[in-house]
Amino acid sequence: MPDYPTALGASTPDTITLLGRDLAADVMGEVGFGELAFWLATQRRPAPGEVRVFEAVLAALADHGFTPTAIVTRLTYLSAPDSVQGALAAGLLGGGSRFLGVTEDCGRFLHDVVAGRDPLPCDDADWDELALETVRARRAAKQLIPGLGHHVHKDGDPRTPRLFEIAAEEGLVGPHLSLFAAIGRVHPAVLGRTLPLNGAGVCGAALADLGLPLELLRGFALLARTAGLIGQLAEELRRPVANEIFLSVDLNNRSIPPVPFTDAGTDGGTHG
Amino acid sequence: MPDYPTALGASTPDTITLLGRDLAADVMGEVGFGELAFWLATQRRPAPGEVRVFEAVLAALADHGFTPTAIVTRLTYLSAPDSVQGALAAGLLGGGSRFLGVTEDCGRFLHDVVAGRDPLPCDDADWDELALETVRARRAAKQLIPGLGHHVHKDGDPRTPRLFEIAAEEGLVGPHLSLFAAIGRVHPAVLGRTLPLNGAGVCGAALADLGLPLELLRGFALLARTAGLIGQLAEELRRPVANEIFLSVDLNNRSIPPVPFTDAGTDGGTHG
Amino acid sequence: MPDYPTALGASTPDTITLLGRDLAADVMGEVGFGELAFWLATQRRPAPGEVRVFEAVLAALADHGFTPTAIVTRLTYLSAPDSVQGALAAGLLGGGSRFLGVTEDCGRFLHDVVAGRDPLPCDDADWDELALETVRARRAAKQLIPGLGHHVHKDGDPRTPRLFEIAAEEGLVGPHLSLFAAIGRVHPAVLGRTLPLNGAGVCGAALADLGLPLELLRGFALLARTAGLIGQLAEELRRPVANEIFLSVDLNNRSIPPVPFTDAGTDGGTHG
Amino acid sequence: MPDYPTALGASTPDTITLLGRDLAADVMGEVGFGELAFWLATQRRPAPGEVRVFEAVLAALADHGFTPTAIVTRLTYLSAPDSVQGALAAGLLGGGSRFLGVTEDCGRFLHDVVAGRDPLPCDDADWDELALETVRARRAAKQLIPGLGHHVHKDGDPRTPRLFEIAAEEGLVGPHLSLFAAIGRVHPAVLGRTLPLNGAGVCGAALADLGLPLELLRGFALLARTAGLIGQLAEELRRPVANEIFLSVDLNNRSIPPVPFTDAGTDGGTHG
After folding, report:
1. Where are the alpha helices (DSSP H) in C62-198?
2. I need a surface site. Which of A37, C213, D45, D205 has the fewest CB within 10 A?
3. B114 in any annotated domain
4. CATH code for the domain in which residue A114 is found
5. Closest residue to A252, CB basis, from D2, D93, D268
């Protein structure tokens, strides 16, 4: 028989362990939820400072009001109120490249620059040099820089300086955040205009500095969003708007003629 | 134009607020993730003791090893590694009546008994009386009691006494937990055998005592599970087993004749 | 090793079979898609008349314009254009009790009445008698009758007489459709007003008469809707509206104060 | 108020139209399901030959036995039997780059080669020349050729010649199929070995020749698979295996020690 090992949850008739600890005695009541999520993802118990940075990232990404994901969860719950899991899953499915992807894209982009670089820059001037080279190369390749620019917070995303501050307080500014900060300083000279470092991007940098798996950075944005979507459902229960949103679209439903075509099959369908 | 109010996330070019607070200044770095999830769901900031009970529940439900939801997430990631959101959503879709539903069912069941009862029982003897009446009524109606019994932990689920203990430490044993405990004491006299109060059930009782919306109790189980599924994906990245699981099913694929039938359409399909 | 039999798809290096037939030689080019879907669900090849009724049902359920499911699919595609599977899955998740459930509810309801009844009524007068008894019993139990009534087509759903007509042409009016028709005739005398037999309901009756599994009647509505949602995505590609829908909700986003509360935790969060 | 036009489904109290036709009179009973799916996606009614090729593609992709998607749907139904929509959606979420993506990748790849080429090759020798150039360019760029090779059908995928045959019978061999066939003829000379043209690839070529939107080729594979997954659920109802699959994984669950780590947070978690 095949044998599938796991270091996560396991149980016998008398015991339940999680990550090799006694779940009841050593995890419940002792480990916060953000801490546990970090631990599950890395199989390494984080230090309190790491938990604080991690939870700051989750807070930054939890809810942004009526995003498409929030609307989707509310509409799905309207249609299928018997399935909370379906409403949450539907909302998470919008967590792809465009809306929640910046966090992952930015973390990976920064990692591609710093990975394997030895020694790493050791002061701001060195980071600025590396950042300058990086921004120039992206510009030459006509590629955008992930994490740079925001359609609303044009003069600065308030989450960005705050996350730098928290990471600095905890001694957790690593190479990804350092490079991201340097990009913020040097890009105007190359691009000819000043763009903000956005919140999703700085979150990606911070998660990468925490050593979380790059393939799953989007997953942490989704974990944060799950809490936000539950908040959306709770608000929908107290103050429903999904039906009104639906009707605002549907009542405007004006039938238009289909696109012009040569009706090749007019004379006979399959059952004609 | 319609107008959709929300008290969750909101932003202007200069500010981002969440739950009416300044996200960067007052939430990031100040509010833990479990605390934030509670706050989003209730629009009420929980006290530290409430957070501790809530996070103990989330820990209890986060991961149980190779459950169907864990296998589903790993197999979906194997098939579509470009979509972490799809792998997580697929896993959550198993969070229905059978595997994750006990938490919600138990919370609702207890609530149906205590809701509107005034005054509530004020000591164990009174709770035992109410519990006895409740268990007898379910038995007479040939209905199971949610949260009672476990297929593995037949002599006691270790999470149950621990969660009662934590709730007691925090002064948060309310009517739902009280009734659940009483059911644990009195059911043997009615049912003729002793069954354990299971962990999913006690979690539902604790969440209901915290005042979380009953309609969304399953949602908190899903939030906990999201963290667990990210852990499953992280482990899959380090030590893949999904392909082996798939092959263990598929290599056994033995084609069998379809069920016997009268082939009414043998002489002509739609394109015959 | 365990051994999982299936009569559906199977392959060897040289052959591919589906439902026990040679896929390339006997299915491709020979079996229409509606016919194949029926065959997969029943493991019985349907007669041409059965295919015609089945496909009429699928046509009736494929698309109803800007339903919540259609909006959800378009918004999810807007957010995550890299994942067509996510956009379709999100739309299908709205296919629950409220919007797509009538088909299944009606089929099951009719089945509960006729199942095991031997002999079945043999003429309209007998069916009317059974229908009268059924409608009275539901009314006495204060239960609605699935498939009766429509919020838009108050004077009659055009799909209903047409599906009866097609079933009659194919000699496929069985007990479920017969009872449903009788309910249409007798309910005004009991309820004191005339309600239309709706299209979703008659589809459920027709699917039940075709012998399709009752547990999966909702599945056929979802199959039909999958085709509709692909149509929605195709139209979105040619003439996008999802971003405009999103903005019509979000631009109206007016931050409101959270619900009043006693801020039990003001003095200290988990990181205070 | 915004105004969202659609040419798909629309209704008034008295009428229901689909694609500008009267749904009851002109679509139900007159239009097959494959035909309707094509029509919805293109807003052009297909000719009977186009329907036959399209439905042959859907048949080729509907079910391949115990694929990960099939296992996922069965396991999700085991966990949450109340939500057929969740079980189907979970299965579809595996329809990503690896398992169902070849159809789309191959169609796009062929399209990139032939798009804008004027005049197109007009005989096999010309197609072979273009194919040779294409295969050489991919090899030089160290890129695989989508649709070439199969892990089981190493000596030929039986679906491929059959789909070419059907397309030829219907006069629907266009540039995509022509180029794909030429790649099959010329690649051994470049690659030094003979690989089969696989079924998923030829389906992508055929769908592209039918003028279906390239962005949605994966969507048609998902439509086909939806029918297959309903078949899987129907079989699961009659002959359940999901619980046995689950247990074959879980009973092998052998707890292993977590990966070694420096337990930075041993001395105090967030609630320590």
Report:
1. 68-79, 84-92, 101-114, 124-140, 159-169, 175-191
2. C213
3. yes
4. 1.10.230.10
5. D2
